[in-house]
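Changelog note: in this version the structure field was regenerated for every chain. One regenerated record is shown below for reference.
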Amino acid sequence: MRNALATSLIAAALFCAPVAVAHDPDNPAGPPLREPRHLSECVRTGEGPNTYESVPNWCQMPPGRETLGPCHGGIVVDKAGNIYFSLDNTQKGEPPRKWGIVVYSPEGKFLRGFGGKEFAGCHGLCINEEGGEQFIYAAHLAGAQAVKFKLDGTVVWTIPYEAIAKSGKYQQKSQLKPTAIAVGPNGDVYIADGYGQNWIHQFDKDQKYIRSFGGKGKEPGQFMTCHGLALDTRGEKPLLLVCDRENRRLQHFDLDGNFVKVITTDLHRPCSVSFRGDRVAVAELEGRVAIIDGANKVVSTLGEQPDPKKRATNKVPASEFQEGVFTAPHGISYDKDGNLYVMDWNLTGRVSKFDLVK
């Protein structure tokens, strides 16, 4: 067994280095591997300076779990390099989980979790530094609200349905289905109702309602699932970047909610974005990650799924995962070194790491 393992590792190293080995299957003291057949595989994907290598079996399982459980959330990385991502513990038939958000080391080791049953089903996340302290903001889809956490999981505040309903856009709580959140330079909070009425709601730093903009439609400035939201600081002034998923495009708005421009079109159903310099990584539900440049043109694509039946579905079993190939990218984040973390929308859970080739 060990000779065979050594041979496979040498072969993999010749193809793609470095190779990450999460656990020796002959060592029972280590954590179980989710996909042991991928122990020695490593796949290179992308083009030019946006080329990446997959890190096989990066995401080790939390204690007592054989799988992560349903993934339908976001990913952020703090200044220390720790990775935070949300789990969907609200699926029918899914047993209760201890955590709504879990924290991992850059090496893929589970560190802790928080949120519990009360905050299960958080969707989009963002991380923001304020006065030298970092905070995680969450669009709590299951709770029809927004939440601000400290990094240890302490709740700072919530913006509940009742506050968002002051917009006059809702008759009942079930109509509000927030999917994304962003924070402006002055502390204003923007909440995207991507699965609901397709409005973006703006609140000030004291959680007081300011305005709503967007609405459902196909015209510039409207949305067909405003699924993702982020603060874009690449230009002369900060703008909001909106993933208008079913219109397959990215749009810019100013911080007062005024439409600026459609910046990228013909995407594969963009869900979320992450920034590094003038580059933007876009998680696309139809089985790939796209990288756009400072001119907002696609310059590289990663892990494109060749089988149309395995795109944009959460039902692909782990036994059919392909190393370095996505099924339904939903959450995404760069770390400080330009490596990428990608969450596929999946019933048993899948979070992958891709190292930037330098």
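Spot check on this record: Confidence is low (pLDDT under 50) at residues 1-15, 17-39. The chain has two helices and 25 strands.
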